[in-house]
Amino acid sequence: MLNLVLFGPPGAGKGTQSQKLIEKFGLIHLSTGDLLRGEIFEGTALGLEAKKLMDEGTLVPDKVVIGMISNKLDANKDAKGFIFDGFPRTVAQAEALDELLISKSSSISGMIALEVNDAELENRLLLRGKSSGRPDDANPEVIRKRIKEYNNKTAPVADFYKNQNKYTSINGIGEVNEIFTSICDVIATWLK
Ligand code: B4P
């Protein structure tokens, strides 16, 4: 089973690369950002709780996102593998994911981290904000808050996978297809 954690700060290109990876490898895409936006769209209690936090650039509580991922793993028992996009975002989420996968006799194949500097992230998100309608992309202050949350709470997740020898970082700046090729090269080493 191929289980990839696609990692990087907000706007690094995780969603963009995930779309290409699901086509090539036939994996199930689990984006906690997309799942949360789905809950908001449907107006669920969970969505209402998440919206306030997301709009201000704060992470949603671990318990909420871990529960969503657990449900999705259960609903896709026959999957060839998963791309985890935007999850895990805290060390507690990473530990929970390991436990969920162990209970299914599976494990993470590796993490690929997309490296992009803060100025480029801010530009990309502001640009997307012009057309996406996402409140968290429209405001430079909220974007900076998201990057700060990433540095404080999410960056340590990289160490979690480094300690397991499952971490690779690649340059996330450049043509989307070039970055995709770099990701595929890393995955090829796992499949050998
Ligand atoms: P997410 O939806 O995960 O949002 P993201 O980090 O902004 O997206 P991504 O990195 O995928 O960017 P993309 O490819 O789209 O999270 C939103 C919020 O949800 C969080 O702030 C948090 O509140 C909450 N949340 C989600 N998961 C959570 C969790 N596990 N725990 C707690 N809270 C959670 O790229 C961005 C832009 O760049 C696009 O416009 C794209 O076209 C462009 N782009 C991509 N690649 C490019 C390239 N190579 N060159 C130029 N532009 C590029």
Automatic annotation (TrEMBL):
GO cellular component: cytoplasm
Residues spanning the membrane: none
MF annotations from Gene Ontology: AMP kinase activity; ATP binding
EC number from the UniProt entry: 2.7.4.3
tRNA-binding keyword on record: no
Subcellular location, record wording: Cytoplasm
Region entry NMP, spans: 31-60
Keyword field contains Cytoplasm: yes
Binding positions for ATP per the UniProt entry: G11, A12, G13, K14, G15, T16, R128, G174
Role summary: Catalyzes the reversible transfer of the terminal phosphate group between ATP and AMP. Plays an important role in cellular energy homeostasis and in adenine nucleotide metabolism.
Record note on domains: Consists of three domains, a large central CORE domain and two small peripheral domains, NMPbind and LID, which undergo movements during catalysis. The LID domain closes over the site of phosphoryl transfer upon ATP binding. Assembling and dissambling the active center during each catalytic cycle provides an effective means to prevent ATP hydrolysis.
Family: Belongs to the adenylate kinase family.
Name of the protein in its database record: Adenylate kinase
